[in-house]
């Protein structure tokens, strides 16, 4: 049976509106391909800055070698990190050895417990301006991560680490699991909460807050990351793209399961 004219028109209008306003059709979103190259499972997580929506439910599971594509609005600002050693069936808190968010699989906006290696990004609203992103060890380290645009460019790439920080992490910064294994390395700020390490109060400027023996150790292992708050030159990358690849345990990292 032929549809009435008004109904046909309404359906056609619906298709146009759906094409214009659905994120994937309009291109008003940015895609992140989150890839797990670690030889074990991880639980990537996301948290938005204030005023921005939660993406990918705030967290998900990736087996070794698996990639998941997630989407963010093109003006999104927030962070991505990986959780390790998670067990969400034990009803215990924390559920993860590193990066835990109140024992939940879907963090739903909660920030992970440091120390974790943080990928931070600020997307620009019109989709044509460069997006700003970095990797930070200001609160510490749990896994290496690399970030690049899908069309790989050296100027748009944040490389992984040349060394496994857990192997050189001093005792005073170590985070151990219940088996006594080192699962993360705290920053000096997180470990000691001193203004001189946290670049706060009277040390709240680049002139007053200088690299410490701890931040230099971080920088030596992971030269592309922020090693402390006023790291210079600032390892901030700005590149325009609608697709980014975020890889945990990239090939430039020589770690294995036993060493982390």
Automatic annotation (TrEMBL):
Principal subcellular localization: secreted
Signal peptide residue numbers: 1-27
Keyword Transferase: no
Single Gene Ontology BP annotation: defense response
Record flagged with keyword Signal: yes
Disulphide-bonded residues: 38-249, 86-96, 101-107, 156-239, 161-222, 169-185, 189-198, 199-209
Assigned GO CC terms: extracellular region
Compartments where found: Secreted
Family: Belongs to the thaumatin family.
Protein name: Thaumatin-like protein
Organism from which the protein derives: Populus trichocarpa
């Amino acid at each position: 049976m032929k549809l009435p004219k008004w109904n046909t028109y309404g359906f056609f209008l619906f298709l146009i509106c759906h094409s214009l306003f659905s994120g994937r059709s309009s291109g008003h979103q940015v895609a992140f391909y989150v890839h797990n190259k670690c030889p074990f499972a991880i639980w990537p997580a996301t948290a938005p800055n204030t005023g921005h929506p939660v993406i990918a439910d705030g967290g998900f599971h990736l087996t070794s070698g698996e990639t998941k594509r997630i989407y963010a609005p093109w003006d999104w600002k927030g962070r991505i990190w990986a959780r390790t050693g998670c067990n969400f069936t034990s009803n215990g808190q924390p559920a993860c050895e590193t990066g835990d968010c109140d024992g939940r699989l879907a963090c739903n906006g909660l920030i992970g417990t440091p120390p974790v290696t943080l990928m931070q990004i600020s997307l620009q609203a019109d989709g044509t301006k460069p997006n700003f992103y970095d990797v930070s060890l200001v609160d510490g380290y749990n896994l290496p991560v690399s970030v690049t645009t899908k069309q790989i460019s050296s100027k748009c790439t944040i490389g992984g680490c040349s060394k496994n920080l857990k192997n050189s992490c001093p005792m005073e910064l170590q985070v151990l699991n219940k088996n006594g294994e080192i699962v993360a390395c705290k920053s000096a700020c997180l470990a000691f909460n001193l203004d001189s390490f946290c670049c706060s109060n009277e040390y709240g400027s680049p002139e007053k807050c200088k690299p410490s023996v701890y931040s230099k150790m971080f920088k030596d292992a992971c030269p592309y990351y922020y090693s402390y708050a006023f790291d210079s030159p600032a390892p901030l990358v700005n590149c325009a793209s609608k697709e980014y690849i975020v890889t945990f345990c990239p090939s430039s990292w020589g770690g294995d399961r036993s060493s982390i």
